[in-house]
């Protein structure tokens, strides 16, 4: 399968709600994806010409570092098309004029960013990372902090989407780490560029898809069932502070400091090499000495940064600031 067809299939899958329903069979999902693929922006709705595509591509890159190459024009066309509908606009040029207006830009940019990114996550998504965090990294960091007057551990989920990763970390801290280190404070921060997913995260209400990989112990202890929803306990919700942060925006990133561990998984794939270098440099500055950075399994800092030491753990890796 060539890359363009794969992108079209992924676009169709993420844009078509029925195919994301975990209660559907595989055949039903395939049918839903196929139906959505046949009605992707290649065949209906307003069209984006090359000049307008380049204007949107440059604006998005300048504002948040996300890179769209020419062969992704149909993808950008489909995602931004939803914003045209929201504003009752007929053409992409009209929407570009709206987003370029200084009066409208501040309010609309978060919605644009949300439209052009995919927010897909769930609890305990990368178990080997959490095992390394719990069994090796946190004990190592805590031991170095024992002699410090302020005993505090700070962890940041830097692309938290709807909060599953940050809340997973909070559960591990409360259940496994705090009993071992009673004199310590624990702070968990979670950020995203999308205001909508942050608002969803703060509610702590999830569908079965989000909890499908969660160990029964945590599900029974920290969630209550409400129909087809799973409601997270206030004890865990109150442990996490959610913030709107653009990882590409250096002035904002300068306020995010003194972290011992940062998770930034499945974000670098959106950036080109220059943007990756800027984001990773920002994350490096946000870490304390001897702090750790986790990124996604399909991501690497090869050719991006030599500042970190690569550390191997069972079935996963992390990057250490020395």
- Net shape: globular
How many domains, as an integer?
A: 2
Q: What is the CATH topology of the largest domain?
A: Rossmann fold
| Count of runs of 4 or more consecutive helical residues | 14
- How much of the sequence lies in strands comes to 15-25%
- Just name the CATH architecture of the largest domain: 3-Layer(aba) Sandwich
**Highest CATH level, the class of the largest domain:** Alpha Beta
Radius of gyration: 21 Å
Helix content: 40-55%
Class from helix and strand fractions: alpha/beta
Distance between the termini: 42 Å
Biggest sheet overview: 7 strands, mixed
Let me know the number of strands.
10
Task: Find the CATH superfamily of the largest domain.
Answer: Vaccinia Virus protein VP39
Give a short summary of the structure.
The protein is of the alpha/beta class. Helix content is 48%, strand content 17%.
Structure description:
The chain is globular and about 60 Å long. The strands form two sheets. It has a seven-stranded mixed sheet. The protein has a three-stranded antiparallel sheet with strand order 3-5-4. It has two domains: 114 residues, Chemotaxis Receptor Methyltransferase Cher, domain 1; 194 residues, Rossmann fold, CATH 3.40.50. 35% of the residues are buried. It has 14 helices and ten strands. It starts with a helix and ends with a strand. The longest helix has 19 residues. It has 322 residues and is an alpha/beta fold.
Task: Give the tags.
322 residues, alpha/beta, Chemotaxis Receptor Methyltransferase Cher, domain 1, Rossmann fold, 2 domains, 7-stranded mixed beta sheet, 3-stranded antiparallel beta sheet, 10 strands, 48% helix, globular, disordered N terminus
């Amino acid at each position: 399968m060539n890359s363009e067809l794969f992108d079209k299939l992924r676009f169709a899958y993420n844009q078509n709600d029925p195919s994301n329903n975990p209660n559907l069979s595989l055949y039903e999902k395939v049918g839903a994806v196929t139906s959505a693929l046949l009605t992707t922006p290649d065949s209906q709705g307003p069209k984006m010409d090359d000049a307008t595509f380049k204007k949107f591509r440059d604006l998005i890159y300048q504002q948040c570092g996300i890179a769209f190459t020419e062969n992704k024009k149909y993808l950008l066309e489909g995602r931004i098309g939803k914003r045209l509908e929201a504003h009752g606009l007929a053409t992409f040029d009209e929407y570009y004029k709206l987003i370029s207006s200084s009066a409208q830009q501040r309010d609309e940019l978060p919605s644009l960013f949300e439209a052009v990114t995919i927010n897909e996550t769930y609890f305990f998504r990368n178990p080997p990372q959490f095992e390394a965090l719990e069994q090796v990294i946190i004990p190592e960091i805590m031991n170095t902090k024992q002699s410090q007057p302020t005993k505090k551990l700070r962890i940041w989920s830097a692309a938290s989407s709807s909060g599953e990763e940050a809340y997973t970390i909070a559960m591990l801290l409360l259940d496994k780490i705090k009993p071992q280190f009673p004199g310590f404070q624990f702070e968990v921060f979670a950020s995203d560029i999308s205001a909508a997913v942050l608002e969803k995260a703060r509610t702590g209400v999830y569908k079965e898809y989000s909890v499908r990989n969660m160990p029964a112990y945590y599900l029974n202890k920290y969630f209550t069932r409400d129909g087809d929803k799973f409601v997270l306990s206030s004890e865990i919700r109150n442990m996490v502070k959610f913030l709107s942060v653009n990882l590409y925006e250096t002035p904002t990133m300068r306020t995010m400091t003194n972290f011992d561990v940062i998770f930034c998984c499945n974000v670098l794939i959106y950036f080109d090499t220059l943007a990756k270098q800027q984001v990773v440099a920002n994350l490096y500055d946000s870490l304390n000495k001897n702090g750790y950075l986790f990124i996604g399994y399909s991501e690497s800092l090869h050719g991006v940064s030599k500042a970190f030491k690569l550390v191997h753990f069972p079935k996963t890796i992390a990057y250490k600031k020395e």
